[in-house]
TrEMBL record:
Pfam families: Amino_oxidase. Probable oxidoreductase that may play a role as regulator of mitochondrial function. SUPFAM superfamilies: FAD/NAD(P)-binding domain. It comes from Actinopolymorpha rutila. This is Pyridine nucleotide-disulfide oxidoreductase domain-containing protein 2.
Length: 532
């Protein structure tokens, strides 16, 4: 690359980087996005991974927070080719005896499924959904807009009142198992909460896991677990089309090797091929916080206390993912599972607790919890008529050696879990692809050692503790450098909030009150890090 000058350079063309680029381009900025890999999208990409004609999502696949996100809604991506598709049922959690608790977009139908486990759980579930319906807009805004959420938080407090606000705050801290036992009598509702909590790296006994399970259950009934028609990559394509239609540029196969800092300010970036890009107004980094601070910025430009805090940064667990091309639909024993886009396998609540406990002790679970997607059920365009594209993932401890032979053995274990509830599954397999932690990191360098959340979702690394104790904002101690990836508040999932928050911070810094904004941020950082 030759040296050039732009208003802003975005490092990384993952979903957050592309959202940040779009928000800045909407404001009329000249924005350049630099992506290290051959194509944009990060963890939101699709490929004929297993067999021609079978379209597999390389990482993320279902997007409840994406379709509910006010950030993505503001971008009107449907005008740029995005089309959402839904499975007949949202999610099924299969218990060891093949009974299934099924989440539907119709709350009454979900309640009926859960009442089969305990009659009182039907009305109790509907009461939870009514609570969600009353606060959902303000809660999502408070979660996904820049911190602190003054306006949304005020509206939320007004709607809840002091008494219910205190109880809601308590809910935010509860383990999923505790929340389920306090709220419901039967196995079905409790399994739905715990299984959805395991979409994070938190086990059912971990503090704060309950709210993740509750949030995904409520979103599932509200907006479903939709998928982009044609593959997750269509979401990326819509973001790219929108951005380039505004004059933005994306350059792939161009790793950034350094953020150039002088006088406490980010001036631009240096690429691995020796190119220089000067950024007049800001550098936005859609990369994990440890990579940004340790590799791209360097210790000389950062407060000592931030560097010390980074030593305590906790990654989420590693991941093993398996994709299959099948000659027919999955032959589930339980017929109600056949229409679910997402399926949870791996046992009852006690088994899920043991799985979470094994991970906490850095043990590879003997019986994995399997999160499975039936993509053809949600979107028949993913494979030839009469066939099916299926994926599943499970978590394993970080740091192990996952050579090809070990990955295949563990994939056999995952497939055996499916076979127990769908006898004959193996006979339908036309092909299989296994990705362990090193494979995931190879196709997306931000998935460090197979961590798909850019840092744990545990309560000690959320809000003002994400990625380290600080302001919970995209602003870094380096002026005009912004953390735009999932390491920043509000964290992982494809909702675009970290990218949008970084873009809004950059716009505020460059605005008429930019000097006052910068002074306020410096004051906050001085209080936290002792930075000047």
């Amino acid at each position: 690359m030759t040296t050039e000058v732009v208003d802003a350079v975005v490092v990384g063309a993952g979903p957050n980087g592309l959202v940040a680029a779009n928000v800045l381009a909407d404001a009329g900025w000249d924005v350049l996005v630099l992506e290290a890999t051959p194509e944009p999208g990060g963890a939101v990409r699709t490929s004929e991974l297993v067999r021609p004609g079978f379209h597999s999502d390389l990482c993320s696949a279902f997007y409840p927070l994406g379709v509910a996100s006010p950030v993505l809604t503001d971008l009107d991506l449907e005008l740029h080719g995005l089309r959402w598709r839904h499975a007949p049922a949202v999610l099924a959690h299969v218990l060891p005896d093949d009974r299934a608790a099924v989440l539907h977009r119709d709350p009454e139908t979900t309640a009926a499924s859960l009442a089969a486990f305990a009659p009182a759980d039907g009305p109790a579930w509907l009461a939870e959904f009514e609570r969600w319906r009353r606060i959902r807009t303000d809660l999502l805004s408070a979660l996904l807009r820049p911190f602190p959420p003054v306006r949304a938080g005020t509206r939320l407090l007004r709607k809840l009142g002091t008494a219910d606000a205190l109880r809601m705050a308590r809910l935010l801290t509860l383990p999923a198992r505790t929340l389920g036992e306090e709220s419901f009598e039967g196995e079905g509702a409790r399994a739905l909460l715990a299984g959805n909590a395991l979409h994070t790296d938190l086990g059912p006994d971990h503090a704060g896991s309950g709210v993740f399970g509750w949030l995904l259950c409520m979103l599932g009934q509200d907006v479903g677990f939709p998928v982009p028609e044609g593959g997750a990559g269509r979401l990326t394509q819509a973001l790219v089309r929108r951005f380039t239609s505004l004059g933005g540029r994306i350059v792939c196969d161009t790793p950034v090797s350094q953020v150039i800092v002088a006088g406490g300010r980010a001036l631009g970036v240096r690429t691995a091929d020796g190119g220089l890009v000067r950024a007049r107004r800001g550098v936005l980094a859609d990369v994990p916080a440890p990579i940004l601070y340790r590799q791209l910025v360097g210790a000389d430009h950062l407060p000592a206390r931030l560097l010390e805090d980074l030593k305590r940064f906790h990654w989420d667990n590693a991941t093993v993912k398996v994709d299959w091309a099948l000659s027919g639909p999955v032959p589930w024993t339980a017929p109600e599972v056949r229409g679910a886009g997402t399926v949870h396998l791996g046992g009852d609540l006690d088994a899920l607790v043991k799985y979470g406990s094994d991970l906490s002790r850095s043990r590879v679970p003997g019986k994995p919890f399997v999160l499975l997607g039936q993509m053809g059920v949600a979107d028949p365009t993913r494979s030839p008529a009469g066939t099916e594209t299926v994926w599943a993932y499970t978590h394993v401890p970080r740091g192990g050696r996952w050579d090809p032979a070990r990955r295949e053995r563990y994939a056999d274990r995952v497939q055996a879990v499916i076979e127990r509830h769908a006898p004959g599954f193996g006979d339908l397999v036309l092909g299989r692809h296994v990705a362990g932690p090193p494979d995931l990191e190879a196709h997306n360098p931000s998935l460090v050692d197979g961590a798909i959340n850019a840092g744990t979702a545990a309560i000690h690394q959320e809000l003002i503790f994400r990625p380290t104790p600080g302001l919970a904002r995209a602003d870094t101690p380096v002026d005009r450098l912004y953390l735009a990836g999932a390491s920043a508040h509000p964290g992982g999932a494809v909702h675009g909030a970290p990218g949008a928050n970084a873009a809004r911070a950059a716009l505020a810094r460059a605005g008429l009150a930019g000097g006052a904004y910068a002074a306020a941020i410096r004051l906050g950082h001085r209080a936290v890090y002792g930075a000047g």
